[in-house]
Amino acid sequence: MRSARPILLTALLLTACGGEEFQDLxxxxxxxxxxxxxxxxxxxxxxPYEPFxxxxxxxxxxxxxxRMPETKGSASAGINQPDMGRHREPLEEVxxxxxKMVGYLYQAKVGHAxxxxxxxxxxxxxxxxxLGPNFGKIVSVTDAEIRIKExxxxxxxxxxxxxxxxxxxx
Length: 170
Fold this sequence. Notes:
Blueprint: H1 4-16, H2 23-31, E1 100-107, E2 110-116, E3 122-125, E4 130-131, E5 136-141, E6 145-153, E7 159-167
Antiparallel strand pairs: 1-2, 2-3, 4-5, 5-6, 6-7
């Protein structure tokens, strides 16, 4: 009987803790979200897609075909038109995005950049050489970058210049 008293006393104390002491907290948790209702705006109205048919009778240029550069003798050639009769260099066939400057040499008082083409071959270029399909002429070569002046044709057929830079990557 002696060993039953501590167990009985512990059970009695535990039942005393189970009262309604935290009933207000239980009610709050149960009713906290009762009056909260979220509001979601309706999705925007979608307009139906209307396809546009390119008709040759409208004389519109095909947006999926590259424009052919005009020859040097044309009246609308513009002041920035590149020399179309110039001999093209091998790296003009490679897009600038595919080339990486991987090194720099200073030889005979001239800075040369080492360029890796997408096929993995290394090429040595200097100011005056051409890179990329947009008639890009190398303006300067430093130990950190190659500056290239490209000539691109806009939708109106005018030639504009833009500067592109290849940074040393390795």
